[in-house]
DNA sequence: AAACTGACTAATA
DNA sequence: CTATTAGCCAGTT
């Protein structure tokens, strides 16, 4: 078990790296999967400080409201992020520009709970 | 070292 | 729906 021995940042990157295409995950979700429950802020912080050389799908990381978080860039990077997600198959609401977490939020392991209309 | 800031979340009103 | 409060922790000033 070495992965628990790594730095919290490395664990966060690792969790984000396993997010499948066409799916998104929230900061709190990633924090919990990384073993850092309640450290949602740190996830975003780690992401902001994450080197681009890691090739991590940072675009699949969004806030709990299904909306892309802004970085103070005025929405430039946010637009780019949204574009990347749309390319992967993630749909955005045309009303509020939000993602339907019910359908696109990564479960962390397998698909959503059975019984719903989504087969 | 203290104060600020920030890619967040959840609860409450 | 918005506003407010509280919790979390690392990096900057």
Detailed description of the structure:
By secondary structure, this protein is mainly alpha-helical. The protein has helices at residues 8-17, 27-33, 40-48, 76-88, 101-104; strands at residues 25-26, 61-62. It contains 5 helices and 2 strands; from the N terminus they run H-E-H-H-E-H-H. It has a two-stranded parallel sheet. It is globular. The structure holds a DNA duplex (13 and 13 nucleotides).
Chart the SSEs and their pairings.
Blueprint: H1 8-17, E1 25-26, H2 27-33, H3 40-48, E2 61-62, H4 76-88, H5 101-104
Parallel strand pairs: 1-2
Helix pairs in contact: 2-3
The chain binds a DNA duplex (13 and 13 nucleotides) through helix 2, helix 3, strand 2 and helix 4.
Percent helix, as a range, is 25-40%
Report on the biggest sheet: 2 strands, parallel
Rounded to the nearest angstrom, the radius of gyration is: 14 Å
- How many helices? The count is 5
- Average pLDDT confidence is 86
Shape, per Cα inertia axes: globular
Uncertain residue segments = none
Number of strands: 2
The strands making up the biggest β-sheet line up spatially as: 1-2
Beta-strand residue fraction: under 5%
Label the structural class: mainly alpha
The succession of helices and strands, N to C, reads HEHHEHH
Straight-line distance between termini: 36 Å
Write a brief structural summary.
By secondary structure, the protein is mainly alpha-helical.
Pick out its properties.
mainly alpha, 2 strands, globular, DNA-binding
């Amino acid at each position: 078990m070495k992965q628990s021995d790594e730095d919290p940042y490395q664990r966060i990157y690792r969790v984000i790296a396993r997010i499948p295409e066409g799916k998104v995950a929230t900061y709190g979700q990633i924090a919990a999967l990384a073993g850092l429950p309640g450290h949602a802020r740190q996830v975003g912080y780690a992401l902001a400080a994450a080197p681009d050389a890691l090739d991590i799908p940072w675009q699949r990381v969004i806030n709990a409201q299904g909306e892309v978080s802004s970085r103070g860039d005025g929405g430039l990077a946010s637009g780019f992020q949204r574009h990347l997600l749309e390319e992967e198959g993630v749909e955005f609401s045309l009303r509020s520009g939000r993602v339907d977490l019910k359908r696109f939020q990564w479960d962390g392991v397998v698909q959503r709970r059975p019984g719903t209309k989504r087969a």
